[in-house]
Amino acid sequence: MKVIDMHCDTLSALLELRKEGKAEGLRQNSRHVDLLRMRESHYLVQNFAMFVVLEGKGDPWEQVCSLYEYYREELEKNSDILAPVLRFSDIEKNEAEGKLSSLLTVEEGGVCRGESGKLEELYRMGVRMITLTWNFDNEIGSPNFLSELKGRMREKKEEWRNGIPGTPQWEEIRSLAQAAQNAFMHTPNLEKGLTEKGREMVERMETLGIIPDVSHLSDRGFYDVLEVTRKPFVASHSNARKVCPCVRNMTDDMIRKLSGRGGVMGLNFCADFLEEKPLGEKNPGTIEAVVRHAKHIADVGGIEVLGLGSDFDGIDTHAELPGAQSMERLWEALRREGFSEDRLDKIFYGNVMRVYRDTLA
Questions:
Q1: In sequence order, what are the residues at sequence separation of 6 or more whose Cβ sits closer than 8 angstroms to the Cβ of residue 130?
Q2: What distance in Å separates the CA atoms of residue 215 and residue 250, rounded to the nearest whole number?
Q3: Predicted model pTM
Q4: Of 8, 16, 75, 245, whose CB has the highest number of CB atoms within 10 Å?
């Protein structure tokens, strides 16, 4: 077994711990991903995202530069077992030397503020994949979670939490809060996609050798990326909307179109993107739900479109897949459901390796 995981937020999680005075690093930590568990679990490549929040966290470019400095420190500390990926051949070289590979990504294309010079600077840093948006509009495009619906959902949830359980008024407010949550989770953004500047930026990414990542991007934006690009692109951490109707997941048509382009989508272990629960009910996450998504995606788009994108350290801990140590457990669950070893190899690393071969210089 070999593993390539297209998305985790471990760098951001560990940098936050450092700011709190907690001395944990990439080699070994209490979060979802560390190098020792990766090595034990036969990882080939981990994509490490520099996750940036556009609103309320200061200058986005300063955020990404801080994360980059932290990443460089951790690479130096762990150079005996970890090496960066700047081109496809680095993966093979690192494996031959017995090292894990790290591919640096950015989760939030808004860090560039629409400036191609910043895009080129990210490339020089070693960034080889960019999630075009997170949950805010930026100069590149718009996300699928609509901000006006998010505000309404938060307002109703707050009213419900502050109510008196069991009263008729509380039950009524709960019903309204559930409706607001459903509207937010189920209403795709069909109007706003890539901006004109965004189209330019995506074209420049493809020229440089940075893979566009459409996870979080609006439905309209997905089709804009399909139109603008020629090479494979990815949805690094997105599931199937037919199985779980959250708009963070991909429609069947998107899955087919992504497959037709030679792209890959990564199974996301976020419980709320795997299976919906009623408002207030705990959603711990199950392997069974991950398997359902895997089977549906393979049926719709073919086995070649399916990969892994755990979203570790960016999500609440999944009860049955709590960290990097869990990949063999997922392998076995899929094997029991009829996936052959050849098909599992494609899901766990082969399909993403093909994308990297086709896109990285």
A1: 105, 106, 109, 122, 205, 210, 211, 212, 213
A2: 9
A3: 0.96
A4: 8
